């Protein structure tokens, strides 16, 4: 790619970005769009502009984002969002500090280096063009100028260590602050118990669980919920809610029809058969009313059966203080580790109830099977990616799709296509995967949604690193040199290292496209806006339905994290080879910080809170990128015939491992469980245990009036008699 | 080695064994020796023969050993000893079940195989002699008879899995039983805290610790002991105890001298200077009396200073119930994992106080440094072992020490020397190491003696496997084939496999020597008996000194375990190659069981109790031996040109790893910490916390009358005021 097509690409991206910015400014001012651009504030009952000055200024949102503090983010969106900002600003800091030194030092060193034109150089195919001149590939083999690059490798590494360490400490503090808050947080009083052994003869499951915990915690055990197989109750509950919605809708339609000069209104009819298409014609409102009554009775009956007869081998246990709950979650309860396994309870809204009764070994087997499936997925995707990078050159396209020739040959279109085609193909391709990986992660038997999100993100990260980064880089040269790898697996690193410079410009464009177009779309929310207006116009009748149409969703870490991580890996790996990429990385994370601040404060609503458990996941991957970078640099310096490489560069990955080891030792365990020193802080009020307890009852078991009596009766037989202990 | 020298070796060993047995029968009957042969019973205040029938029968001890139950062992010697018997009987079971199948099946298969005399066969140098005929080396390469050996490999493996699983379950039960006992065990109410951060301004260490735990455990925290630097107090205490002993001794000498017709007696004198050799001559009794008074005052003053000013960053915390203590030991207390680290308290008698204040990272660095030293030790010992196996052939001896020629050439002596020389050299050599390894393990910063014993045993195990087993086996052929290993590290296994049969007879003799002579010495206690009588006659004056002279010591797991493990590894690795070794293994562990039962019930006094924590250590090493065996069998079958090897034998080590993984998942954690279900069992009395607390005060701080006041004052300032919380 030459300079002009690179600049065209950048220019077009920037143009799109400016258009989207303008759209955002224009659209977000119109009151009917407020629900899309200020969803979070509206849901919290705030006026969209309450407390904000000068909403008319098109750049007001930037000032607001910059003025907001971490405490604001935590208040509005929780610790997880704040932790994500720590991640963004840490990476931003790493890139900024690296760029400040590397760009002014390395670019001149590389650009003024004498050119050695080998036939088979390691840089882009063809001659050195203007961009490649600024890369390390332009420096002569064995030249003393390489020392500047060695120092740069160290600088990037130590900046990363320093900022990661600071961030880990800071996030530990955020998590501790949140967990020691004096607010009552229901999940802090509960633990999950799984793998309960078979019920002994003459006891119910409920009695077994209650007597077990009553013996261990005579003073602090409050009550328990035995997990039940709710599938049938859930189905009935879902049907019931459906009819309720339909009823509300019909009533509104009926009310509207009465206004239109027809005082009686028209009552619509429906058919009782399949999908309302066949069967007897009846009055809709009456029919739904009847159905609802019927289903409520059915649900109540089913609830009784479920609670009594469908108890399974898992339970939620409640304690009347936080210290006991958090100590219990960390302690071994039974001599056999695979029974009565106890863990911290996630928030009720993020529990995946179906996964709770899965057995210890079943979980482990599922995990390994799924790792294997993911492994296969990652490696069979290699093939399509290979095809894409082969297809997406213009010459190939012209050959394969000759009818496109006249279009492609126009110079304007040609440049644009040349700049975008490969990147667009890649981005579209990557959109297919997350749901599949999410499904797989759920199938592992993980009990909380936040953990599933992390597991998905982890799998997706492997995928993107292997397929996008390594795949694109090595892809073209891989097959021809496959035999040399078979002989000596170490040459894989050398291969990666020598293929790196060739793809530098590709990734430069890739990153620029991601931030200009990606963040432009993110900020302007064009897609949700259009969807909302279409739905509102043609589908929604009730308030409830409108609300659903503009529901903003959460940050979707499962895909956001690996996307950002891919950029982290690309930028960090190219930081020394092609320092030009660093400013792009800075802009990427700078824009992300700004736009995400706006979105977090005004749009997204987090669907769970894991108190920063995401952080070790992020930290590990940044460190892994650093190690990948250090390893490829060893290979690349070797390829550059820089003979001091082994003694000087090999210590770096070792230092990284030691750094990781110390961080893990010092910080990690607190992210897995709550420290007692944190849990023992005083609460501002005595917790109402009844409320805590009820918050964990799934909606399908608690929705109707009958519940009071029923739960008193069925759920707390033992704890009631237990109170006389 | 030919058959006759093998039989001579066996015969001589057996003869020595019989002589030692006879000595035991004769000596143990004599009342003045009872303290050596019945130490444990005497220390427990029992009559040596109380409850035992027919002490006159020379084989009575065998009947008594066989009649004793596991409960007897636990009662007399604790869970650790019982667990050791589980280990012995498990290994005995493995060898017995293997022998029952392998000996009658494989010996005929091997012996009737046609001999293929290759020049470079893998068996002993020279021709097949009578013993080697019964080994797998005698079977032709690629012969279908090898299938019998394949089946045998599987049989041994599955017998091992089955018995290890059963044993692990049984030991878990023993540990649970002991920990849920209704007796008050002081250490179950305490935890150790290490890595306490620096004292905040305006607080004492004591206040810091007490307020920290009071906040977390307002109702269950009882009191704390801050670990102090006792080195000075210990020195004074040691001096004081020394003078007390000397005084007692002088008083007895004086009393004796009065009886001998001299009514005034002779009062001995001593000099006040260095070692009593120089300086002023004074009356001993008066001098010692004065010294003791002086030292008591000095100790009291030092105790006050120590308790107040020498507090360090570790403490023992007491709780008033077992569940809290065991949950606390398993919970994270501070957000930073490297501060306020909490662990289960070992028994007071096995705490290594000096190691408690060592810091988190100091401990880790020490550990790695020591691993490195051990690694060096293991590999530099290779060289002497190599020398020994080169020297200890008679021909070499004759060449190097020609003056021995006339002695060696006598046929009787020649046979004996030929049979014993290499083995004796090896055994002597191995006796040098344990103390060094024990010292290293202590320097790691491990806080309990039982853990140090395990760490030492682990290091010693590596040593003996690498140097004795692999060293002797491969040693001779290693140097000549060193280059082939360099080219292909995998060939190490093949090398080991092909060298195995050659050393079979060596190890046969080695095992036989170990059990006949080793257990003969163990049972007859000749060495302790002679030492005791010598000391009693020439050194001991006071009762106390006599008691010290016959103090039996404990089982010394640090050396006993690796010794037995070496035999386990040898026998299991040779089980299929030379099935003749199995009966030897059976006799070894059969005799060990019998003789150790006798010694445990009547002689040894355990110096600590770790509630079976030794077991995972034993189990892991048995499993490791099994995996070593399976791997070498893969190599050996490959060397035998048995082409079904990869699909048929390679799954075995994989199964072993899965087995180990499951066992670890299911059982291991309970051996690291106490399950709450176990800790919550009721006690038969309310524990006297004052007694629990006092049991942890080191003797040098608690020996004199002043303690009451002092400890009340200095140790429990906060907990006293705390009781008004």
UniProtKB/TrEMBL annotation, chains A, B:
GO molecular function per UniProt: calcium-activated cation channel activity
Residue stretches spanning the membrane: 6-27, 82-107, 146-165, 368-391, 420-440, 460-480, 492-517, 565-591, 642-663
Domain CSC1/OSCA1-like N-terminal transmembrane: 5-166
Stored InterPro entries: Csc1-like (IPR045122), CSC1/OSCA1-like_7TM (IPR003864), CSC1/OSCA1-like_cyt (IPR027815), CSC1/OSCA1-like_N (IPR032880)
Every CSC1/OSCA1-like cytosolic domain range: 188-355
Domain spans labelled CSC1/OSCA1-like 7TM region: 366-637
Location in or out of the cell: Membrane
Family listed: Belongs to the CSC1 (TC 1.A.17) family.
Protein name: CSC1-like protein ERD4
UniProt organism field: Dorcoceras hygrometricum
